[in-house]
Design a protein that fits this description.
Blueprint: E1 4-8, H1 12-24, E2 28-32, H2 35-44, E3 49-53, E4 55-56, E5 59-60, H3 61-70, E6 79-83, H4 88-96, E7 101-104, H5 109-123, E8 133-136, E9 139-142, E10 147-150, E11 153-154, H6 159-170, H7 178-186, H8 194-211, E12 218-221, E13 225-228, H9 232-235
Parallel strand pairs: 1-2, 1-3, 3-6, 6-7
Antiparallel strand pairs: 4-5, 8-9, 9-10, 10-11, 12-13
InterPro entries: CheY-like_superfamily, OmpR/PhoB-type_DNA-bd, Sig_transdc_resp-reg_C-effctor, Sig_transdc_resp-reg_receiver, WalR-like, WH-like_DNA-bd_sf
Domain OmpR/PhoB-type: 131-230
DNA-binding region: 131-230
Length: 236
Amino acid sequence: MPARLLLVEDDPAIARTVIYTLEREGLQVNHSLLLGDARSLLAQAHFDALILDVGLPDGNGLELLRELRQHPARQSTPVLVLSAHGEEIDRVLGLELGADDYVAKPFSPRELAARVKGLLRRASPAQAPVAATPHAGPFHDDTVGQRMHFNGQPLALTRREYRLLSTLLAGAGRIHSRDSLLAAAWGDDSDSTDRTIDTHIKTLRAKLRAIDAGCDCITTHRGMGYCLDLPAAARG
């Protein structure tokens, strides 16, 4: 079965170009002009990925992204944000809300298709780890289900956040460079930057502190990377 995508874009010309390009790649595309229509489609069907415009007639596309990341069944759905706003603050906001990629208009349709296929490839279950990691201090990593518990409570993580935290946990006590974390969470063919890692680490820290206000276990090593610090007994 071809991957099924939801495109939320209010410009008909852009939508036609995107649909034509993606369908030539063998993908199935449903198109919505409005956020309200997109919400209805999401309630009715499963989509393997979303391409989401920001400026829409009935609201901001990032509102829908926020809703997706708060919905347990859709937290891991890959989302590519497509927007005329290419400023750093817009990209950072989209990433902080859980976007997997960001493309600014005007864009190359072929590049967009390549990025979408990359998202789908990295979201494939075949990319998931197959061995379970035992309890490590306050953490329990269910690598098969790609779920993480902290102090006995489930963490609401996006796919990227989960992969980052799982990588840090597997190498607890060791400093991980930003490049190695990018490769672990985004893949070697990612165009993401160091700032992407910094943004996701910031969000991870906030989610850990929401459960344990005193948690400060992810340490920044300036110029080197990040380390997850656990008690020696927990690291074995």
